[in-house]
Amino acid sequence: MVDEQTLKKALLVGKKSERIIFAVTPEMKETVAKLAEEKCMTVSAYITSLIVDDAVDNKEVLAK
Known about the structure:
Elements: H1 4-12, H2 26-38, H3 43-57, H4 59-62
Helix pairs in contact: 1-3, 2-3
């Protein structure tokens, strides 16, 4: 099983070359912006941190 540190490195290290675009409501955009600002992060960094945290929490799924 992959350990947490190795998984985070695999997901975060390297050149970012891909984009994911999705639609949100104005309320969702405002909420995410406020939460990111509270954590002193960009919206992109905040969304990325949520995905990485979820990947770490579910690393057993990724090991399959």
